[in-house]
Amino acid sequence: MKKPDDDPLRAANSSPRCTARSKRTGLPCKAPAVNGWTVCRMHGARGGSKPGPAHPNYKHGGRTKEAEELRKAVNAMAREAREHAA
Ligand SMILES: [Zn+2]
User: Fold this and answer.
1) Which of these, 20, 41, 54, 62, is most buried using a 10 Å CB contact count?
2) How far apart are CA 39 and CA 29, in angstroms?
3) What is the pLDDT of residues 30-85, one digit of tens each?
4) Based on the domain organization, do 42 and 8 belong to the same domain?
5) 61 shares its domain with 43
6) Which range marks the domain in which residue 9 is found?
């Protein structure tokens, strides 16, 4: 006789569920959520592109998060210098 804890289907059925709701019926999705996510594979878990040079639209690096932050910092310093000079 099998113990209830040995049943793989029981473990699968008790896994966390997707939190998405149907647009039409308003009912919950009920599909198992992807590990580390609150939604299932059909509702947006995983996917997306890698950041930086690995991104398919990467051209020259002038629009990376680091470059944008550096530009903002330089512009803020220039603004401050202008305000002090006037
Ligand atoms: Zn789902």
Assistant:
1) 20
2) 9
3) 999 998 889 999 998 888 888 889 888 999 999 999 999 999 999 999 999 999 98
4) yes
5) no
6) 1-47
